[in-house]
């Protein structure tokens, strides 16, 4: 009986070692995929929240992404996420995404782009607040990625990285990611995107009626 008790105690001790402390914490760049929140952070250092963010007009906005695989057209909804749409449109108009590669592709999950260091651009140096968008994460939705640190998502840490879903992902709604539009043309292009494919040019086409 004594020998059996010792064996049980030793087994419990081994299991008890498998706590959070045993998980790898080498880098924010190496969390367990696949999740948009697991992306490398946009900035290499802590960014400050934007002091003020101009909100987009209420009308929907059509954005065209000309990629190496074809054209993707996105309809953005300022009424769902005004600050997020305003930030994305601002970056598009500044040419921020031109030449930007899709650095992450998770088949059946998302494609992701918008990391400035991959094209030698400085970080924008600010973050935008999370918004409670009514847009659900169905296939073809565009939303903002967030910083992932220490096994947790960092609230209000979105900046320039965005992702487009390749399937319905309701758990991302529950996690609070800000969706702000959807693909209206070129979903077949989205599905052909591979890591390293570039956005040749991004432009605001016109308000969508």
Labels describing this entry:
209 residues; alpha+beta; eight-stranded antiparallel β-barrel; two-stranded parallel sheet; 4 helices; globular
> Which fold name corresponds to the CATH topology?
Cyclophilin
By CATH, the architecture is named: Beta Barrel
| Total count of helical runs of at least 4 residues | 4
CATH class wording: Mainly Beta
Structural class assignment: alpha+beta
Tell me about the largest β-sheet. Answer: 8 strands, antiparallel, barrel
Structural domain count: 1
As an assembly, this protein is single chain
Summarize the structure in words.
The protein has 209 residues and is α+β, with helices and mostly antiparallel strands. It has a single domain (2-208), classed as Beta Barrel (Cyclophilin). Helices cover 17% and strands 29% of the residues. The protein is built from four helices and twelve strands, in the order αβββαβββββββαβαβ. The chain has helices spanning 2-16, 82-93, 170-174, 187-190; strands at 48-49, 60-67, 70-76, 100-106, 110-113, 126-127, 141-144, 148-149, 152-153, 162-165, 179-185, 198-208. The strands form three sheets. It has an eight-stranded antiparallel β-barrel with strand order 2-3-11-7-10-5-4-12. It has a two-stranded parallel sheet with strand order 1-6. A two-stranded antiparallel sheet has the order 8-9. A hairpin with a 3-residue loop joins strand 4 and strand 5 (110-113). The longest helix has 15 residues, at 2-16. It is globular and about 35 Å long.
């Amino acid at each position: 009986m004594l020998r059996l008790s010792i064996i049980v105690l030793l087994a419990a001790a081994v299991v008890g070692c498998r706590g959070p402390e045993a998980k790898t914490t080498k880098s924010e760049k190496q969390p367990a995929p696949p999740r948009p929140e697991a992306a490398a952070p946009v900035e290499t250092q802590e960014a400050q929240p934007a002091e003020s963010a101009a909100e987009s007009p209420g009308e929907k906005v059509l954005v065209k992404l000309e990629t190496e695989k074809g054209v993707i057209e996105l309809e953005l909804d300022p009424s769902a996420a005004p600050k997020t749409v305003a930030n994305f449109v601002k970056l598009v108009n500044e040419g921020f995404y031109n030449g930007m590669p899709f650095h992450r592709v998770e088949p059946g999950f998302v494609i992701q782009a918008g990391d400035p260091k991959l094209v030698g651009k400085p970080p924008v140096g600010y973050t935008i607040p999370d918004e409670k968008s009514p847009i659900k994460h169905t296939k073809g939705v565009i939303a903002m990625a967030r910083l992932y640190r220490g096994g947790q998502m960092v609230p209000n840490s979105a900046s320039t990285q965005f992702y487009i879903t390749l399937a319905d992902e309701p758990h991302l709604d529950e996690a609070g990611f800000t969706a702000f539009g959807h693909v209206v043309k070129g979903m077949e292009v989205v599905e052909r995107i591979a890591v390293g494919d570039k956005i040749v040019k991004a432009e605001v086409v016109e308000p969508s009626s």
